[in-house]
Specification:
This protein is mainly alpha-helical. About 65% of the residues lie in helices and about 5% in strands. It folds into eight domains: about 10-210, 3-Layer(aba) Sandwich (Rossmann fold), CATH 3.40.50.300; about 215-270, no CATH class; about 280-350, Winged helix-like DNA-binding domain superfamily/Winged helix DNA-binding domain (Arc Repressor Mutant, subunit A), CATH 1.10.10.10; about 520-595, no CATH class; about 600-670, no CATH class; about 680-820, Serine Threonine Protein Phosphatase 5, Tetratricopeptide repeat (Alpha Horseshoe); about 840-915, no CATH class; about 925-980, Arc Repressor Mutant, subunit A (Orthogonal Bundle). The chain has 48 helices and eight strands. The strands form two sheets. Strands 2-3-4-1-5 form a five-stranded parallel β-sheet, sandwiched between helices. It has a three-stranded antiparallel β-sheet with strand order 6-8-7. α38 (about 750-775) packs parallel to α40 (about 805-820) and α43 packs antiparallel against α44 (about 885-895). The protein starts with 9 loop residues before the first helix and ends in an 11-residue tail after the last helix. About 55% of the residues are buried. Mean pLDDT is about 85; it is low at about 120, about 900-920 and about 990.
């Protein structure tokens, strides 16, 4: 009763064929197929898969699974992996061993799984390793020929799958891959967790959304003709169309209930579906009831739960398959042809029947666990918990929830783990003697749930749970356990930006143990204190705390070097930040040696060493260190990604923008926590180099959501400098000044972060002084000059003479303070600052300083002297692909009427930096000169119109043209150009 071909979907299929063509040519994309149950989503995707196979595509398929309140982590990708593993697909064989071991968490057929995450490892890093392994697999699958990945029933997607899809979407660049996903549109209620994900993914330019509507009257006639082998009567078409409302599955089931379309007259599709089941033999119905509870099961599981064996079970399964109700998959698993069939049968069971089936299924899966079935241990734990909960067996459900949580943590599925542990907490009070079933007391369960929630980025919930756990642990009876809980409390507070409370919790834990306690708990507390102090830029205190942790470790048996590598890392970073470069570098090298084979610890130590060397002005060595670290952890994608971002930062500072963009392209993508902040900051720097101010500000705001509560100057300082720069370019000087003012006290005196901020503060003040002069606001000018000089004083107080980066930024702050004093001042000082930055290889700051020097020389009338620094800035900005500085240089040359003899282009004379223009370098008409004079005087468009006898709208058009010709962004900048170049005198012409 199913049509032999796809009916009425040519338009939709055409869109999917276009997506296949895109994928085949190296333009990866997503296609979302939405529609109500039975409307034909699976049939359309089947047709797409057939077309893709004919086009030479490799086909991968996965399904999301509905487990009620329980979720099966990475369900669709686990299915894909298992099929690839069983077929010995080359994409599996070619995987690096480290990636293969990560994927073995999802598919035990791949071998031994990777080691468990280290205690304290950031969840984004742990989960990111698995994400990168899945990405590498898909890249490998699509390496030799294009691939189609089909994921059905996305409305049931688990949290981990929902987390991976945005990562996949943003990571695909030129892979020959199409990801096609289906979901039921009627399932997406307002609070459905899939809605925000779809909003994010479907608006991507590489995504297509295909909404399937019911078939029309003519299309239904075509469907019935194909099924019946002859044209149906008009009455039959009308009858089925009226009853099915064009839903293809409903029409098929109604026809199966009676060829005249009348059938047993079921009022609903559910009843029509049950009619088909009722026609089957009783053993087959019994198997279908079990399968409806299991959702999918192999023959062994069905035999254990249906009381049918051998030939009887196979006969029942054959009848179910032949009746088009069940499909037999190539991996030996049986499932319903359509999920709606399963739902109807499951809902039709009596409560007692349903409970009995769930209990039988849970018991059978328990037996598999006891028998050492690795697949059951990996995937069925969540199912067991769901089945016991549905059966009403609360003690067994409690035990199963905790076991499922541990299995989810093994998969880095922290959200699912948190959900399972939360359910265990709900069950606790309903179960007699819960500790016996849980294998843990209530405080321990609270701590596990808190850690899982923290790793799932549910910070407030984690804090609530760990606070309760601390309250339940007796610090007198078990001080070490209480101290360990306080360490978790400190981490929860620190993650939310409660830095004082985080420090208090650590001190409480240390006070419980005392200075002579020789325990791993005390070492962990001391190491955590050293790390938090270092991240907050309290470097002296961080060194003392790290020394205390290292000294304490010598007195504790069984403590390995790895256990104190975090303290050694914090100490080395703090020492270099304090200016003790040799000792700090040596200590960080020790931390690298202590890390063993742990990729995250290795990456952290290399990252801090490279960053510290770069801040000390040894950028080339820093770049070599970061690249060395990338080689050490090349097999671990996420740790390698951290180091790649350091490489991007160094390259941008060195003016190697094109190379930085290339590295960034391979390390972009959504994530959480500190990694997300770093990605946003690196992308913002590149956006500013392109003068894409809007994109930069959007990225900086996104970074702020994570950075604000972190308590870490390493984020506050660079972010503030970039935002102030962006605000200056928009002419928003008051906002730029506020950014600098608000951030300085958050830097905790860290000179590495403070000096660039102070130099930017002086730059903002210098711009403000110039604007005040242009507008004739003497009080504002004096205030801005005072602010610039204050910033200069602060910078000189922060500078460390042996740190060339400090010296360069202090020179810049001084130059800007001088520039604030007058438009013609500061040329020599800016050239000195440019030389200091040039010695560091920082071409961006050097070129910018040269432009300011040229601007002062032009304002003083010395165009010949301005020609050298201006041309140097232009050539360097062009060579380093810094579009913004190149545009600034060209604009300044035009405004200042600076020319030189030889063109700087390709030798054809068509790309000279500034054309020879005499008295009016901008080509302003006499009327535009009149309008500019009024703009310089502060007139509004309405006042300009009244003065020059023109409409306000006409005045607005003139102003827009003037801004374009002057190459400025605002009326204020236009007024400044007019004042400085003598264009504010109104030409003598009559009114229009």
């Amino acid at each position: 009763m199913t049509s032999s071909r796809l009916i009425g979907r040519e338009t939709e299929l055409s869109g999917l064929r276009a997506a296949l063509a895109d994928a085949s040519s190296g333009r990866p994309s997503f296609a979302f197929v939405a529609g109500e149950s039975g409307v034909g989503k699976s049939r359309l995707l089947d047709e797409l898969a057939t077309q893709a196979t004919e086009d030479g595509f490799r086909i991968l398929r996965g399904d999301c699974v509905a487990l009620g309140d329980s979720e099966l982590p990475y369900a669709p990708f686990a299915g894909v992996l298992r099929r690839l593993a069983r077929s010995d697909d080359p994409a599996i064989a070619d995987l690096a061993p480290a990636l293969r071991s990560e994927l073995a968490r999802l598919a035990p057929e791949l071998g031994e799984a990777a080691i468990e995450p280290a205690d304290g490892e950031p969840s984004a890093i742990a989960q990111g390793r698995l994400f990168e392994a899945l990405l590498a697999l898909l890249e490998g699958v699509a390496a030799d020929r294009p691939a189609l990945l089909v994921i059905e029933d996305l409305h049931w997607a688990d949290r981990s799958t929902r987390g991976f899809l945005p990562f996949l979407a943003s990571s695909l660049i030129n892979e020959r891959l199409l990801v096609a996903l289906s979901y039921r549109s009627e399932e997406l209620h307002r609070a459905h967790p899939l809605r925000p994900l779809l909003a994010e993914l479907e608006r991507d330019s590489r995504s297509r959304r295909i909404e399937l509507s019911p078939l029309g009257h003519d299309e239904l006639r075509e469907q019935l003709t194909d099924i019946l082998g002859a044209p149906p009567s008009p009455e039959l078409v009308d009858r089925l169309f009226g009853r099915s409302q064009g839903n293809p599955l409903y029409a098929e089931e109604l026809l199966a209930a009676g060829l005249d379309g009348r059938g047993p007259a079921p009022p609903t599709l559910r009843e029509a579906l049950l009619v088909r089941v009722d026609r089957l033999a009783h053993p087959t119905q019994a198997v279908l009831e079990i399968l409806a509870v299991a959702q999918r099961a192999d023959e062994e599981l069905l035999a254990a739960t249906s009381h049918l064996e051998g030939a009887d079970l196979r006969d029942a399964l054959r009848e179910a398959v032949d009746s088009q109700i069940v499909i037999a998959r190539d991996d030996g698993v049986y499932s319903f042809r359509h999920t709606l069939l399963r739902e109807v049968l499951h809902d039709g069971l009596l409560p007692g029947e349903r409970s009995e089936c769930h209990r039988a299924m849970a018991a059978a899966l328990e037996d598999r666990l006891a028998g050492g079935d690795r697949r059951a241990d990996m995937y069925f734990t969540a199912s067991i918990a769901s089945h016991y909960a549905a059966a009403g067996d609360q003690p067994a459900a409690l035990r199963a929830c905790i076991r499922a949580a541990h299995a989810a943590i093994h998969l880095y599925a922290f959200g699912e783990a948190a959900d399972q542990l939360e359910r265990a907490l709900e069950l606790w009070s309903r179960v007699p003697d819960p500790e016996t079933y849980a294998g843990i007391d209530h405080a321990g369960l609270l701590l596990e749930a808190a850690i899982a929630n923290r790793n799932a980025a549910e910070g407030p919930r984690a804090l609530h749970l760990v606070t309760k756990a601390v309250g339940e642990i007796d610090p007198v009876a078990d001080p070490r356990r209480a101290a360990a809980a306080l360490q978790q409390l400190s981490r929860a507070h620190f993650a939310l930006g409660h830095t004082d409370k985080a420090a208090d919790a650590l001190e409480q834990g240390l006070a419980l143990l005392g200075p002579n306690d020789a325990s791993p708990e005390r070492i962990a507390l001391l190491t955590r204190r050293a790390r938090q102090l270092m991240l907050q830029s309290y470097f002296d205190a961080a060194v003392a705390a790290a020394d205390e942790a290292i000294e304490a470790a010598r007195t504790v048996d069984g403590v390995h070097l790895f256990d104190i590598s975090g303290a050694t890392n914090a100490k080395g970073t703090a020492l270099m930040s304090l200016g003790f470069d040799e000792e700090g570098e040596r200590t960080l090298r020790e931390a690298i040696d202590q890390c063993g084979d742990d990729p995250d610890a290795i990456a952290s130590a290399y990252t801090n060493l490279a960053d510290s060397l770069h801040l000390a002005g040894r950028s080339e060595k820093a770049l070599a260190v970061a690249e060395e670290g990338m080689e050490r952890v090349a097999w671990a994608p996420v740790p390698c990604r951290w180091l790649a971002l350091v490489v991007v930062e160094i390259l941008v500072d060195l003016g190697q923008i094109a190379r930085a963009r290339a590295v960034m392209r391979g390390n972009d993508g959504p994530t959480t926590g500190n990694l997300r902040v770093n990605i946003d900051l690196r992308k913002a720097r590149l956006a500013l180099a392109d003068d894409d101010v809007d994109a930069a500000l959007e990225l900086l705001e996104d970074a702020a959501h994570v950075a604000r509560p972190s308590g870490q100057p390493q984020f506050y300082g660079p972010r503030a400098v970039m935002e102030a720069d962006a605000r200056i370019r928009r002419g928003e000087l008051d906002e730029a000044a506020a950014v600098i003012e608000n951030v300085y006290d958050c830097l905790n005196g860290d000179p590495n972060r403070a000096i660039p901020v102070v130099a930017m503060g002086a730059t903002v003040a210098a711009h403000a002084a110039q604007r005040a002069r242009d507008l004739g606001r003497d009080d504002d000018e004096r205030a801005a000059i005072s602010r610039a000089r204050d910033m200069d004083d602060v910078a000189q107080g922060l500078v460390r003479s042996h740190r060339p980066v400090d010296v360069a930024y202090a020179a810049l702050a001084h130059a800007e303070a001088v520039r604030a004093g007058g438009a013609t001042a500061g040329a020599d000082e800016h050239l000195a600052a440019a030389a200091a930055f040039e010695a560091l290889g920082r071409t961006g700051e050097a070129s910018s300083a040269r432009l300011r020097a040229a601007e002062a020389l032009i304002a003083g009338g010395d165009r010949d002297a301005a020609r050298g620094p201006l041309r140097s800035a232009l050539e360097i900005s062009r060579a380093t692909d810094q579009c913004y500085l190149e545009d600034e240089a060209r604009s300044l040359a035009a405004r200042g009427r600076v020319t030189w003899d030889a063109p700087d282009g390709d030798g054809d004379g068509t790309d000279s930096a500034a054309p020879a223009i005499d008295d009016d370098p901008f080509g302003l008409t006499p009327r535009e000169r009149q309008v500019l004079a009024l703009v310089a005087a502060g007139a509004t468009n309405r006042e300009i119109g009244a003065s020059l006898y023109m409409a306000e709208k006409t005045a607005s058009v003139h102003v827009s043209r003037i801004l374009s010709k002057l190459d400025v962004r605002s009326r204020t900048e236009a007024a400044g150009v007019a004042h400085r170049l003598g264009l504010d005198a109104e030409p003598a012409i009559g009114p229009a």
